[in-house]
Amino acid sequence: MAAGFLLAFGLASAVAVQILLTGHLDLPDWAVQYLPGMKAGFLIAAASMLLAHRWLGYSAGDLGLAARPRNGFPYGGLGAAAVAYLGMWIGFEVMRLFPSPGYAPPGRTSAGEQLLANLHGALVEETLLLALPMAVMTRLRWSWQAQLTVLVALRVPFHLYYGYGALALGLIWMSGYVLVYRRTRLVWPFMLAHFAYNSAHADYLPPGVRPLLGLTLCVGGVVAVIRLIRQLGPRSGVSR
User: Fold this and answer.
1) Residue 220 three-state SS
2) What's the distance, Cα to Cα, between the start and end of the chain in Å?
3) What phi and psi values does residue 97 have, to the nearest 5 degrees?
4) What CA–CA distances, in Å, run from 8 to 36, 120, 147?
5) Predicted confidence band at 30 (pLDDT cuts at 50, 70, 90)?
6) b/e per residue, 79-92, with b = 16+ CB within 10 A?
């Protein structure tokens, strides 16, 4: 898991820290746009999952690739994706309240480049930074507090070019993830949520569709959270 993180996100994390500390980047824009971790991330994620299965004995269910029903989630996987999206959206909105180094990453000029980058975020990040660490921590019976700490520590470094607000982003974003993942044990809702959030800011979707996509998932997330609270109420003694 550590090797996968370093290979896929190590250089991006170093770049983000430099931007945080200096407010600029010494590397040329083209080098940032085509970081090796981005290009190789799909293979690294696939290899990491395969090795976790072969060497560590994790099943598809352990890795979030197959249903392991434990506690029903409101509206199933789509409800889980909506809540994950809502947590991500809130995290980014709160992050924008903090000062930023002011660095703007070079934009990806084509719809194909944006689509590839968004697929990388959905498939690679959620594999290496959610499914694998949660499989390990679940086997070790770590508490949710420990799980949250690890997920934040993994997700924040390569987002630090946003500024110290990335810490708030990571905490809010991963709190939603921990809440949902511990109940679903499925990774695809998080991949869907991540891809949908990035796609809501991408050129390959019509301008009218982007805000509608985000609004639909945010409203769905609020509805699912309300229903989840109602489900948990009698069990926790909140309601009688």
Assistant:
1) helix
2) 44
3) -80, -15
4) 8, 10, 21
5) low
6) bbbbbbbbbbbbbb
User: How do residues 165-215 score in pLDDT, each as one tens digit?
Assistant: 999 999 999 999 999 999 999 999 999 999 999 999 898 999 999 999 999
Long-range contacts of 231-239 (CB under 8 A, 24+ apart): 231/72, 231/74
Residue type, 48: S
DSSP structural state of residue 207 = T
> Burial, 236: exposed, middle or buried (Cβ in 10 Å; 0-12, 13-18, 19+)?
exposed
pTM value?
0.90
Which two three-digit tokens encode residue 79?
A: 């409800």
CA–CA distance, 85 with 220 (Å, rounded to integer): 9
Residue 108 identity: R
Residue 161: CB atoms within 10 Å: 23
The 3-class SS string of 33-94 reads HCCHHHHHHHHHHHHHHHHHHHCCCCCCCCCCCCCCCCCCCCCHHHHHHHHHHHHHHHHHHH
What average pLDDT does this structure show over 30-48? 73
